[in-house]
Amino acid sequence: MRTILIFLGMLAVVPIAEAADPALNTGNTAWILTSTALVLFMTLPGLALFYGGLVQTRNVLSILMQCFAITGLVTVLWILGVYSLVFGEGNAWIGGLGKFLFAGVVEAEMTGDIPETVFSAFQMTFAIITPALIIGAFAERIRFSAVLVFSGTWLVLVYAPIAHWVWGGGWLGSMGLLDFAGGTVVHITAGVAALVFALVLGPRRGFPKTPMMPHNMTMTVTGAGMLWVGWFGFNAGSALAADGNAGMALLVTHISAATGALTWMAMEWIRYGKPGVLGTVTGMVAGLGTITPASGYVGPAGALVIGLLAGFVCFNATNFIKRKLEIDDSLDVFPVHGVGGILGTLMAGIFASTELGVFSGQGFAANINSIGEQLSVQFIGVLATVMFTAVVTWILLKLTDVLVGLRQDENSELEGLDISSHEERGYNFTN
């Protein structure tokens, strides 16, 4: 009896742990933490290596530097107010500044059943990769100061409003636009901005007559593999839960990537007699970008069709832009991401339907309109995103040119941006 009393007395003085927040889902939180790391991994080092291998030796460091600098710049701007402009309480067009400097974003604050700190970090990685995608359009000929000025202003004046329209309670989301992980917000905005940038900046010296081959395909393929893996966090993470919808999003993402790679490879094999490595990995990226807006709404059979279309359409768009129109979108941002984003956003309106048998959608499909009605909403979303992005991007480019100048002088381009902009070399073969 005495032993029991002593034991009970000890229990009385042991501090009782605070009960966990009943709204917190630890499984979902763990998955979004992981997805955040995966999406950042897409930019650093994935996109940096993918793009870095595609440029000439004298410009490889400039690409890596631009990816790193944009990551830092977007992070600071996100905290200063861009997160609030996207997800803060506002109107149908833009969020307010109630979350300026992350006011109210504390450990106990929840977004659904995950901490808002985790949600905001996850969304930040999307904001990071979007302007980073654009650098493929102006590779090897832009001033580094112009990269910073343009990327910062573009994030505030293009990305933030459109992200709010779609994901932050704005007018496109209210209309019922289907964009699960960024067909409009990420891929169309980046692709259209890249096309406008290429037109305003002009081609690289020697384009299109002088061949400009990738300097390190091993680097590019390594980066492509990282993008493929990281994209699982991009799309499946957008479910904001570790559930069946996330699982289906991951599955269809992989199917579309694989089908896009095989389709592009086959197209090159038929047209040029040999399957190209660069074409195969580019087809994979096209498949990933095209499935992105539809990934939470379609099933495996629909993803197979979307990947097939992505490889075929984006392959022909690339050849049309580069060879027919002779527009030097250096690393094919518009034909892969812009065209892929448009195609995927429209396809989401079709394959999310429950009326297509084995090709019917999954997840949230039961909540959408008929195919015709949904396609009209998707088309409005695409058109609004394209027009707004094109006009504001053009204005920002003109302002950037006035402020700091857009293009390097001829001698700097010939010397290479690694030396002219950063006084460093990517490779030193004399040591």
Structure description:
- By secondary structure, this protein is mainly α.
- The chain has a single domain (26-409), classed as Orthogonal Bundle (Ammonium transporter fold).
- 67% of the residues lie in helices and 1% in strands.
- The protein contains 15 helices and 2 strands.
- It has helices at residues 2-13, 26-54, 60-87, 116-134, 144-167, 171-175, 183-201, 217-236, 244-272, 277-291, 300-324, 333-351, 371-403, 410-415, 417-422, and strands at 110-111, 114-115.
- Strands 1-2 form a two-stranded antiparallel ribbon.
- Strand 1 (110-111) and strand 2 (114-115) form a beta hairpin.
- Helix 3 (60-87) runs parallel beside helix 5 (144-167) and helix 5 (144-167) packs antiparallel against helix 7.
- The radius of gyration is 23 Å and the shape is globular.
- It starts with a helix and ends in a 9-residue tail after the last helix.
